[in-house]
Amino acid sequence: MINFNRNMSVLDRSIRIVVGTSLLLIGPMTDAVVTDTMSNIILGVLGTTAVLSGTFAYCVLYEVTGFNTLRGKSNSDNGCV
Question: What is the mean pLDDT of residues 44-66?
Fold first, then answer.
C-alpha cells in the first residue's frame, strides 16, 4: 500500500482548496465567452490537482524536492487523511 506522508500545513491546504475550486469554476464560465476547449481542460486538471493535494495534505512536488510546510511533527508520524 502506498503511504502518503503529510507535508502541507493547514494554511497551505486552505489556499490550495480555494484556488483549486476557483479554477474549477472559472473553466465553465469562460466556455460561454471563449470556445477554447484546451484551456478548459488545463484549468480542470490544475483545479482538480490543487483540490486533491489540499484535501489529502500531500504534494508530490514537495515530496520530490524535500520541501515541507508542516511544522511540529515529523513525516513518519503522519499518515494519509
Answer: 92
